[in-house]
């Protein structure tokens, strides 16, 4: 049976100070955010994922968005160098966590910047968004790390949202999904399916056709159900106020030792 592990990180006391770049700031309810985070982690566990909590980084408001700190390909980890300097202290505990799982650990070096949220993997193809948080040198280092392992790295532009995966993710059959007003280059992907809501562009593949997604995208959930998938909605409204989505609240490690 495949090994399905996920790294998660509990919201810290400064969550309400998290960065926002493409939306207006609105107040975040920390207690509700913690409750929603517990629901998110519970959904992962309920669908067969073993979760590991990364050590807290309480001085870093955005640390709960743990996906931005690392990119995984098979059992190789590339520790990010976030484009926002204030987020760089988040990465050390994530590096320790993936090392403890037996992963090979590499790092993005200066002057490269790379956020994990800018990386979408579909099979052996790795799409990386070059935009506000990830620069050309970060893309080069990602390519140098993973292409020798058999990956094909494809850079795509990102200008309308925070990260590539704020605009697009993919269904189990490899079809890329996105909310068209926020996608710079739909033609960059082999197959593209527009969705009717911004939050509908974000899914986590739980296995068996189940799609973890935000409760704020009911029309998209209906579309996915019509396609034969099984949406698993979770309420993450407090994280959406910080440009967060279901993908960035965990790092999924599939078939870790294969």
Descriptive notes:
The chain has 258 residues and is of the alpha/beta class. The protein has a single domain, classed as L-arginine/glycine Amidinotransferase, Chain A (5-stranded Propeller). Helix content is 21%, strand content 25%. It is built from six helices and 15 strands. The strands form five sheets. The chain has a three-stranded mixed beta sheet, covered by helices on one side. Strand 7, helix 3 and strand 8 form a beta-alpha-beta unit. The chain is globular, with a radius of gyration of 17 Å.
Determine the mean pLDDT. Answer: 95
CATH topology label: L-arginine/glycine Amidinotransferase, Chain A
Proportion in helices: 10-25%
Q: Output the radius of gyration.
A: 17 Å
Strand content: 15-25%
The structural class is alpha/beta
Task: Note poorly predicted spans.
Answer: none
CATH class: Alpha Beta
Biggest sheet overview: 3 strands, mixed
Shape: globular
The succession of helices and strands, N to C, reads EHEEEHEEEHEHEEEEEHEHE
Number of strands: 15
What is the CATH superfamily?
L-arginine/glycine Amidinotransferase, Chain A
The CATH architecture can be given as 5-stranded Propeller
Q: Termini separation (Å)?
A: 11 Å
Domains, number: 1
The number of helical elements comes to 6
Could you outline the blueprint of secondary structure elements for this entry?
Blueprint: E1 4-8, H1 30-46, E2 50-53, E3 70-73, E4 76-79, H2 91-100, E5 104-107, E6 119-122, E7 125-130, H3 136-146, E8 152-157, H4 164-167, E9 168-170, E10 176-178, E11 192-194, E12 204-207, E13 210-214, H5 218-226, E14 230-234, H6 237-240, E15 251-254
Parallel strand pairs: 1-2, 4-5, 7-8, 10-11, 13-14
Antiparallel strand pairs: 1-15, 3-4, 6-7, 9-10, 12-13
């Amino acid at each position: 049976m495949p090994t399905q592990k996920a790294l998660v990180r509990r919201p810290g006391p400064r969550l309400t100070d998290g960065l926002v770049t493409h939306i207006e700031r609105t107040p975040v309810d920390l207690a509700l955010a913690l409750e929603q985070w517990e629901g998110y982690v519970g959904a992962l566990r309920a669908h067969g994922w073993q979760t590991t909590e990364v050590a807290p980084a309480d001085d870093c408001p955005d640390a709960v968005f743990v996906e931005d700190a690392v990119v995984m390909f098979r059992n190789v980890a590339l520790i990010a160098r976030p484009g926002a300097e204030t987020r760089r202290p988040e990465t050390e505990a994530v590096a320790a966590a993936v090392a403890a799982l037996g992963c090979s650990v590499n790092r993005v070096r200066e002057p490269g910047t790379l956020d994990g949220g800018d990386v979408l993997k579909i099979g052996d193809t790795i799409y990386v968004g070059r935009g506000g948080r990830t620069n050309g040198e970060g893309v080069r280092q990602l390519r140098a790390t993973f292409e020798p392992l058999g990956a094909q790295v494809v850079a795509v532009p990102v200008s309308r949202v925070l990260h590539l995966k704020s605009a697009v993710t993919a269904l189990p059959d490899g079809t890329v999904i996105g909310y068209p007003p926020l996608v710079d280059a739909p033609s960059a992907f082999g197959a593209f399916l527009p969705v009717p809501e911004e939050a509908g562009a974000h899914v986590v593949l739980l296995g068996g056709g189940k799609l973890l997604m935000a409760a704020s995208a009911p029309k998209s959930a209906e579309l996915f159900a019509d396609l034969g998938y099984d949406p698993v909605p979770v309420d993450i409204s407090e994280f959406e106020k910080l440009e967060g989505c279901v993908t960035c609240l965990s790092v999924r490690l599939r078939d870790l030792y294969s």
